[in-house]
Amino acid sequence: MPVDYFVFVPAYNVATTLASVLQKIPESLWCCSIVLVIDDGSVDDTRGSFETFVESLDGESVGALKKSHLRYMRFEQNRGYGAVVKMGIAEGLRSGAKYVACLHGDGQYPAEQLDVFFRYLVSQEKMTLAPAEKLALVQGSRHLVRGGAKAGKMPLYKRMGGKFLTGVENLAFKQKLTDRHSGYIVYSSEFLKTLDVAKLSASFDIDLEMISIADARGFKLAELPIPTRYAGEKSNLNVVTYGLRVLRQVFRRIIA
Questions:
Q1: E strand segments, 41-167
Q2: What's the CATH number where 45 sits?
Q3: Choice among 4-8, 111-115, 147-151, 227-231 with the minimum mean pLDDT
Q4: How many structural domains comprise the chain?
Q5: What angle do CA 219, 225, 230 make, to 5 degrees?
Q6: Which residue from 155, 158, 187, 206 has the least number of CB within 10 angstroms?
Q7: Checking DSSP bridges between strand 99-102 and strand 185-188, what pairing results, if any?
Q8: Residue 38: which domain range?
Q9: 252 — phi, psi (to 5°)?
Q10: pTM of the complete model
């Protein structure tokens, strides 16, 4: 039976944070969602963390419900963020869900706000009258609240680099956003069905690529504020090569 929501969780070496992320997903969502953890060839005990979380559900009143809606998938070799997102989208569409969310397993993004984002998409769909007003996605922004990124201990180089790239992108794209590099995104399946997922980027810029496609095709984009959370964790993102790929995306859009 199709569910309303599908949440996929990119998980690479997140043994210390994964259980906490899953625990924070609002209980109100479990009855109408599937949550899929995609382990991208982790070399730590990410799988053990998932299994420990599953075992902990035995003492919860809704534990059986959560277990029945929880899935785990593992790539034996690390394939990269883009491959995980492609798989998450494919599985989300296969589930029949109306909305698909990407929730990173490292704890940087607020799992507890998923219900807010899903409700926002639902409410916008009810108000939409014309095809041109269709909302493709809603992205969590760490910059909608002034000073929020700094308060959340985002490193200075990331704050400055993100603002620079977002500023350049806003010059090239129709719709202006405050935080184009947040990975906290909830998509409309109606939009995802228009994508040729196999042709999307295999790297971290896959999120930007989908936002760019939505903008080019006339779908609406939206943002909601989210808190910034940094705790000294090591990022798997090479900021230099990522920045160059972003600029390449902008260039392609300008000459299109």
A1: 70-75, 99-102, 135-141
A2: 3.90.550.10
A3: 147-151
A4: 1
A5: 120
A6: 155
A7: antiparallel
A8: 5-255
A9: -60, -40
A10: 0.89
